[in-house]
Write a structure and sequence with these properties.
about 240 residues, mainly alpha, 11 helices, about 0% strand, globular
């Protein structure tokens, strides 16, 4: 049943015009604008490609929570609780849905980098980069789920937008962290988005990800995972 549930939710999400425009199209547009307004070197186009793919994955992952909040509002979660699916399967199904819908956002930005900006990497680098960005987006899916189970649909949308903006700017996904003041640069190093993009950029340059970057993303995954579980339990008590 969980496979059918994931298939249903993925189809629902990909048919949403707002998701296609803002979740997939917007990161591509921003990437092309940032790298083609004036002159930019190959290094910046590659680094920005990874950062914008991470931004697209972040937004797509968080949108999973908006869908959860909407389902909660119309009673869909209550209907799922009377099916043979266990609560763990319901949460896992939503998490898997989030993991699937980040792929189009990642692929669209990488395709723009390769086709429009002539970014060139070895075949294995493209494959590993997609895998790293896909896996690295999972903590943000958990954050979105936590927001969706805890908040109303309208509030979840606003909070997710706020999370996306704050994490994107502080994490250096829009602008190089070298332009930040020292205090913001120090704060940026603690954000999951900065380290998420850093891991992807290491792959793009053919180097191994730093252990600090991996550790920071892992810690935030635990934090967001705990938040999602607590939010779901609270939702189950109040529904």
């Amino acid at each position: 049943m969980i496979t059918a549930y994931v298939r249903l939710e993925v189809r629902r999400t990909l048919r949403d015009t707002a998701f296609v425009v803002f979740g997939i199209g917007m990161p591509v547009l921003m990437y092309l604008m940032f790298t083609n307004l004036g002159s930019s070197g190959t290094e910046w186009r590659t680094a920005s490609m990874v950062a914008m793919a991470a931004y697209g994955a972040l937004g797509a992952a968080l949108s999973t929570g908006t869908g959860v909040a909407e389902d909660k509002g119309v009673g869909w979660l209550r209907q799922l609780r009377v099916t043979p699916m266990t609560p763990r399967q319901v949460v896992a199904g939503r998490a898997l849905t989030g993991s699937v819908i980040v792929l189009p956002a990642i692929a669209a930005v990488l395709a723009a980098g390769a086709v429009v900006n002539d970014v060139r990497m070895e075949a294995w680098q493209w494959g590993v980069l997609i895998l790293v960005l896909w896996l690295g987006a999972f903590p943000f899916t958990l954050l979105g789920l936590g927001n969706g189970y805890r908040l109303t649909a309208q509030t979840t949308g606003l909070v997710n937008v706020g999370c996306s903006l704050a994490l994107s700017v502080a994490g250096g996904l829009w602008f190089p962290v070298e332009l930040f003041p020292q205090w913001l640069r120090s704060l940026s190093g603690l954000t999951p988005t900065r380290r998420f993009a850093e891991i992807g950029q290491s792959v793009a340059t053919g180097s191994a990800p730093g252990p600090v970057a991996v550790a920071v993303v892992a810690v935030w995954a635990l934090v967001f995972g705990s938040y999602a579980v607590l939010s779901y339990r609270r939702s189950a008590r109040t529904a």
